[in-house]
Specification:
three-stranded antiparallel beta sheet; 7 helices; 61% helix; 6% strand; 7TM_GPCR_serpentine_rcpt_Str
């Protein structure tokens, strides 16, 4: 999953010669608004269908159907409001907000971009929840209790929060990291990123090859493998 998170819309070199233009980012903004609004409308419609039109034989699956739909709705809503940008020029992982709400001062930029990252992890970790629920229904001929279902969701949330906390720890702004952050600001120091007041948008950055970031990446790969296998 993170392979898509660290891919820049346009390849960027150290001198920002190929930085995405403002026109390209505006096009991306419009595209994201249309896609996320459509996703929100369709997921709300799906929730209504599940709640009112589900046939009798599907009533036992209503919980897992609602779970995945609600998480999709959360991701679309956060994407519409925040539209975080993730890219990694020269091994430096940089994130910032480029959505309806922008810009936010630190540390709120870091908090905001961690929210959709957490939900994206959750979208993967709830797949085993659905698998276990269906396994118990079909193979064991028993419907998991609400307590079991909540515990499964809690485990998925815990794993997602664990991965997200690693990113948060390495990207959290601090006074000790100010000099390093200033060095990273060169990747945004051009006319394509300047705010109306001429400043650089707030962002968070970390060395992508650090141990913690590497562990989060390979842990994500492992979660993806498990999800695909299910």
């Amino acid at each position: 999953m993170l392979s898509c998170l660290v891919r820049s819309p346009v390849p960027m070199d150290e001198d920002n010669a190929q930085a995405p233009t403002r026109q390209l980012r505006n096009l991306k903004f419009v595209n994201n608004v249309i896609a996320n609004v459509l996703s929100i409308v369709l997921n709300l419609f799906l929730i209504a269908v599940i709640q009112t039109q589900a046939k009798k034989q599907l009533r036992h699956y209503r919980k897992v159907l609602l779970l995945s739909t609600i998480v999709d709705l959360m991701l679309a809503s956060l994407g519409l409001v925040l539209q975080p940008i993730y890219f990694a020029p020269n091994g430096i992982f940089i994130i910032l907000i480029d959505g309806i709400i922008r810009p936010l001062p630190q540390p709120w930029t870091t908090v905001a971009v961690m929210l959709p990252l957490f939900v994206m992890y959750l979208l993967l970790t709830i797949v085993p929840v659905s698998f276990i629920y269906r396994y118990m229904l079909i193979c064991k001929n028993t419907e998991p209790s609400s307590r079991v279902f909540v515990c499964l969701i809690g485990a998925a949330i815990g794993v997602s929060a664990g991965y997200t906390s690693v990113w948060t720890f390495h990207l959290w702004p601090s006074s000790s990291a100010s000099a390093t952050t200033n060095n990273f600001s060169k990747y945004l120091d051009n006319e394509h990123w300047y705010l109306p007041d001429g400043g650089i948008p707030p962002f968070s950055a970390a060395v992508y090859v650090s141990l913690g970031i590497g562990m989060a990446f390979w842990g994500s790969v492992g979660v993806c493998h498990v999800t695909i296998s299910l």
